[in-house]
Specification:
single chain; mainly alpha; two-stranded antiparallel ribbon; 15 helices
């Protein structure tokens, strides 16, 4: 595919000859990282927590918080090294295990030649992605999974699904390695598998949303339906909490998407406006479809539309123009509405909080539509050729083939890892709480607490 502008390099350079980080870029990346932390605690916890029954509110808060923190620890021990050091096309090495060799003076590349950021903030920013992505899976198995089973599964899935897919999509040598055609060939040969295929993913459509979304579907199938599913009311206990959580996710998502530019630049402002517009369009789209079909637009539908818009624009935000973002958001609202209300009933799976219908379906749409609307002829940025130092010729059909590689690889890899990991957990410690504990509610049966007191 030539030398391409993709996403999130990890090439680090040290020593006196290394360029100095810009304080504005560093400050922005610190803020962006904090925004993504806010997405996990409290954003995701409140968003998910409001959608479960009151007796399971604290269990969801506990699962999302502890999963995030546990995987943050594993990221420092070995995750960063496996994802973002040179190894093979699927896994990095262990040269930076325990963050060995990284100091306050270490730097990581951005997307501009000669521009770097401190490596510690790059490590931290990527930690937030690696830790919140597995936490999304919690929504597929909510209200009946053992806490110990959730943690054991997350360690396995993080290690064997998230890390290799992140490496496949985002690991490359960085722009400064592209000094000639020969150097570019050498740099491309050391990159991740999907980078070599030419797949583009600005902030995680494949790595985050498809990856976690298909895992949630596998989990929902393997753990089985909740006790009373289809016979008892399982309506959200607090849409107020869900609205608050969704709003925190939206604000935090600007750190997620805009921070992925790695600089406080014009490219970052493009990611900002496309993230904003796609979310608005998807909220309007979902609300309009639901209003037309069900005669009453719902709060749950509106916030689900907002999340669908955020999901669909994630891989595209730095590549597509504002009008492309509006179209993508409009498509996501309608498509994910069908994923939650049509496809879910068709396959008959109890995906408790609609992770598959929103994240996986929206992520697939986003990854594919990125290939279309990144085209300069449709207002996109195209793909930068670092050897020629200009935007390369863009062919939508060729890019769609590359995007299909990203979608297909993420779906199959994550699904296989998820099946094996859930099965191992079930055979060793069991996936589900017992029926009595499930009826009582996981807050009391698993954690000895209650969210609300009469």
């Amino acid at each position: 595919m030539g030398t391409l502008f993709l996403a999130m390099p990890a090439w680090a350079q040290t020593g006196p000859a290394a360029p100095m980080p810009n304080k504005g870029d560093t400050a922005w990346m610190i803020v962006a990282t904090l925004l993504v932390v806010m997405m996990a605690a409290p954003g995701l916890g409140l968003f998910y927590g409001g959608m479960v029954r009151a007796k399971n509110m604290l269990s969801i808060l506990m699962q999302t918080l502890v999963v995030f923190c546990l995987l943050g620890v594993l990221w420092a021990l070995y995750g960063y090294s496996i994802a973002f050091t040179e190894g093979n096309a699927f896994f990095g090495g262990l040269s930076k295990a325990f963050l060995a060799g990284i100091t306050p003076d270490s730097t990581a590349a951005t997307f501009s030649k000669g521009v770097v950021i401190p490596e510690f903030i790059y490590v931290s920013f990527q930690l937030t992605f690696a830790a919140i992505t597995p936490a999304l899976i919690v929504g597929g198995i909510a209200e009946r999974a053992k806490f110990s089973a959730v943690l054991m599964f997350m360690v396995l899935w993080f290690t064997f699904s998230y890390l290799p897919i992140a490496h496949m999509v985002w690991y490359w040598a960085g722009p400064d390695a592209y000094t000639s055609a020969a150097a570019a060939d050498k740099a491309n040969a050391s990159a991740g598998f999907l980078f070599q295929k030419g797949a583009i993913d600005f902030a995680g459509g494949t790595v985050v949303h498809i990856n976690a979304g298909i895992a949630a579907l596998v989990g929902a199938v393997m753990i089985g339906k909740r006790v009373g599913f289809g016979r008892e009311s399982m309506a959200p206990h607090s849409l107020t909490m869900t609205m608050i959580g969704a709003s925190l996710l939206w604000v935090g998502w600007f750190g997620f998407n805009v921070g992925s530019a790695l600089e406080a630049s014009g490219g970052a402002t493009l990611a900002f406006v496309t993230t904003l517009l796609a979310t608005c369009a998807a909220t309007v789209s979902w609300t309009g479809v639901e209003w037309a079909l069900k005669k009453k637009p719902s709060m749950l539908g509106a916030v689900s539309g907002a999340i669908a818009g955020l999901v669909v624009i994630t891989p595209a935000c730095g590549f597509v123009g504002p009008m492309g973002a509006l179209v993508m958001g409009g498509v996501a609202g309608a498509l994910c509405y069908w994923g939650v209300n049509g496809l879910k009933r068709l396959i008959g799976v109890d995906d408790s909080l609609d992770v598959f219908g929103v994240h996986c379906i929206g992520g697939i749409a986003g990854a594919l539509l990125t290939g279309v609307f990144a085209s300069p002829s449709l207002g996109g940025t195209g793909i930068y050729d670092y050897t020629a130092n200009k935007v390369a010729d863009y062919h939508i059909a060729d890019q769609l083939i590359a995007q299909c590689w990203g979608v297909g690889t993420s779906l199959v890899w994550s699904a296989v890892v998820s099946i094996i990991a859930f099965k191992l957990v079930d055979l060793t410690i069991g996936l589900r709480v017992d029926a009595d504990g499930e009826r009582e509610g996981l807050d009391v049966s698993s954690h000895g607490e209650t969210a609300y007191h009469p």
